[in-house]
Amino acid sequence: MTAPAARDTAPRTAVVVGGGLAGTTAALQLADAGVRVTLLEGRPRLGGLAFSFRRGDLDVDNGQHVYLRCCTAYRWFLDRIDGARLAPVQDRLDVPVLDVAHPRGPRLGRIRRDPLPVPLHLARSLATYPHLSLAERLSVGRAALALGRLDPADPALDGIDFATWLGRHGQSARTVEALWDLVGVATLNATAPHASMGLAAMVFKTGLLSDPGAADIGWAHVPLGHLHDTLAGKALDGLGVRTLRRTKAERITRADDGRWTVEVPGETLTADAVVLAVPQAETHGLLPDGALDDPDRLLDIGTAPIVDLHVVYDRKVLKRPFFTALGSPVQWVFDRTASSGLTGGGQYLAVSQSAAQDDIDAPVAELRERYLPELERLLPAARGAGVRDFFVTRERTATFAPTPGVGRLRPGTRTRAPGLYLAGAWTATGWPATMEGAVRSGFSAAGAVLSAFGRRHDHPLQEAA
Ligand SMILES: Cc1cc2nc3c(=O)[nH]c(=O)nc-3n(C[C@H](O)[C@H](O)[C@H](O)COP(=O)(O)OP(=O)(O)OC[C@H]3O[C@@H](n4cnc5c(N)ncnc54)[C@H](O)[C@@H]3O)c2cc1C
Question: Does residue 417 share a domain with residue 294?
């Protein structure tokens, strides 16, 4: 048996399976702590569900990704890969909300914050929000204060849906549409009746009620692939991580000596620890027997789709960097012109549709017919504009489905098999499926590995606290 003191200094090895944000984070943290890491990614690129591809001269993201100032783990990740300046956060929360169904014509409202303490930072914005009546605005204020008193980790909250809670707190269909779902659908990837109240409380409490700047929005001003693949790959290379792209783990087993083997085509890797950072279904397929009490529960964690419609106009049709819409099937619209590298005076908009069950299987022609007239309704300048290109990206399993009760199904990082750890946005992070949740799960997995190795884990969020 190795003495603890010798164990501290012996070179330790780990294989991380999955090069999404969770696996990349775990690999970075383990390598930072001196562990020899091999990172396996089945696809030709890192970044997992947040990636880019080329279409002609354009760099296209598979889906618009945003994060909030309160996403401290993802911000750590951006800093760690030297990418923070390429994905800045707006100075102060400012979301234009355009209602095209108003009887007296389209109306623009804004969700903005003031430089005041919580909850006063949003008081003026709510008081002047034109898409709700005075009575509705007062009821939203009361519900927000009640929400602020909840503990998102309370298991009872996970058992009920967000819509039921909102109904109990006097919220009308209009307040749900014009405010709660406006934020909730984009962050949870589900409408209120299909979202766990625990996850909804987590999002609204952390984003809107924890710190005045918590909900300021950040997004990549470069293709996502530049951050999550190019820069992350560079950081991993700098630490000596062996990163194997196009390399799928096929089997994971524990040898009699307690070490792990990971089989990939043409090679068998051995390591002291394995971090399995792949989606829940793939995890289920790779888990060795006995690693979880009831592995089939992983298959009960559903998935939810996101669809993005990409429209390249022959001229500028939108002045703002983004906006969100009411009274239209269009949800959020982002100007992607600069980040895609589009030149020649046109404008490239990405229309981001969460909880997209109705659109995920629709043919491109049908989506074009549905959304182009809507964009013309929302953006007068689009009415005479030519459409140079229209295409669709579909992510059927964009996120885990945040349904009530999902909290019971999400496993933690530790398994029953010593040396095997789980990571991924779908594991028990307390967050909905986000880049933040993915990075947090990578922290947890790296922390568990290092603690088993008797090594110190410099948890970045504790340092920041
Ligand atoms: C269109 C879209 C929009 C989104 N918008 C936002 C947003 O605005 N804000 C936000 O915070 N989040 C958003 N998300 C969610 C966010 O992208 C994910 O939660 C996060 O990227 C998940 O990271 P992950 O590492 O947990 O998993 P994944 O990204 O799924 O990574 C798992 C990796 O494992 C690899 N893999 C699988 N099996 C194997 C194997 N056997 N061997 C080796 N490798 C394997 C996969 O190829 C993949 O790269 C969005 C997602 C999508 C799809």
Answer: yes
